[in-house]
Specification:
By secondary structure, the chain is α/β, with parallel strands linked by helices. The chain has 16 helices and eleven strands. It has a single domain, classed as Alpha-Beta Complex (Amidase signature (AS) enzymes), CATH 3.90.1300. The structure holds glutamine (GLN).
Length: 491
Amino acid sequence: MASPQVVGASIAELADGVRARKWKARELVESFLDRIHRLDGRLGCYLLVDADGARWRADQVDAAVAGGRDPGLLAGVPIGLKDIFVTRGLETTAGSKILRGFVPPYESTVSTRLAAAGAIALGKLNMDEFAMGSSNENSAFKPVRNPWDLERVPGGSSGGSAASVAASLCAGSLGTDTGGSIRQPASLCGVAGMKPTYGRVSRYGVIAFASSLDHPGPFGRTVEDVAALLEVIAGHDACDATSIPSPVGRYRQACAAGLAGLRVGVPEEYFQAGMDPEVEAAVRGAIDEIARAGAKLVPVSLPHTQYAVATYYLVCTAEASSNLARYDGVRYGHRTAEASSLEELYSKTRGEGFGVEPKRRIILGTYVLRSGYYEAYYGKALRVRRKIADDFRAAFSKCDVLATPTSPTAAFKLGERNADPLQMYLADIYTVAPALAGVPALSQGCGFTRANLPIGLQLIGPPLGEEAIFRVAGEYQRRTDWHKRLPKDPS
Ligand code: GLN
């Protein structure tokens, strides 16, 4: 039996090897656990490693293969879950002290579906507290470091999910994207990640941040890996009232379908001041390559883009203030040690349990929802949100997919933007509008800066237009080898 080379391996290679009995799921798990053990002390990707559980599940997969049964599309593939997905019997914190000690009695739909397809969860991945952030520095426990440069952030809020795939500490992972939290860290870590259409992937068992914006989705080294994970996790779920009933697309097939007849829109608002020139050059280079591959380029305009960040921070804080009201010291996780009244129990628990960013957002969100202010802030934000969605609708009457940068800069240094929340919020400038509109969007590598930091290309599609995105992403990846570059293991 060959011994598996897990560094840089794709999900497809690993699963094929398990099915063909080239290696065992158990060997894959041991290889990844060994890497986590040796390297994660420097990177900080995992909040919890479930070594025994992973070994047990790997043995089950191997037993299925030995018995002639197909364990599924993700046979024996070791994956990581952002610590926002509840896992039965395994502590789930959402990166927050207030949930320390919370051991969920149930399992999220997506992690259930991954396990049913043969994937093996290695553990829970680090994240910004309640998914609020763009650098993973808001984790209550530890920062994640970018595998390409340990002095730099991996992006956020799914920083552990992106960095663990980049550093081969799992073969693929799940994250959530509310305003960019899959695409921006994918871009900064040089991997692929997708925020599917809102409702395409179930939110059941995903700790809520902003419910009308929360999108679970996959990370992978290749776009085919993202497609495979999405095929497994997507689809209707009666446990999520916003889940879309229509059938799941053939995403892997779309990756190989070519670009004949496809129109790719280039929105002028996404190429304006504030973007790093190296990012602009790489993204424009990628768009040229897509045109050479046969797509027709169409200039388009999304005129309300300039309002997207402000709109996003009104909607998400309003919803967060309501969702986070449930952490009261009575039902979940942390409870203050000393309280002489019920009100003191709430205020001390919340004061001790929440970090600075959730507190800022609860206060902002409560303010914008106050009677008398509701119309001026929240109501207005909802109307602008509609206009942003209308912009996309109009653009998609002229093209099939939009191509833009994912992030205006490559990875920034730890601590560089901490002092100024506004500066941090601007990291989301290209990712929040597709989230507000609920349209699918993917980030994939399209180059490196001179300092060897990854740059991401964002591809945006119309509602349920994931297949069109995968056509472009697959063809672009076939013509380039950015996804084959790997960071050095940290020493
Ligand atoms: N960075 C954005 C924020 O802080 C997006 C986070 C997310 O998508 N979860 O809200």
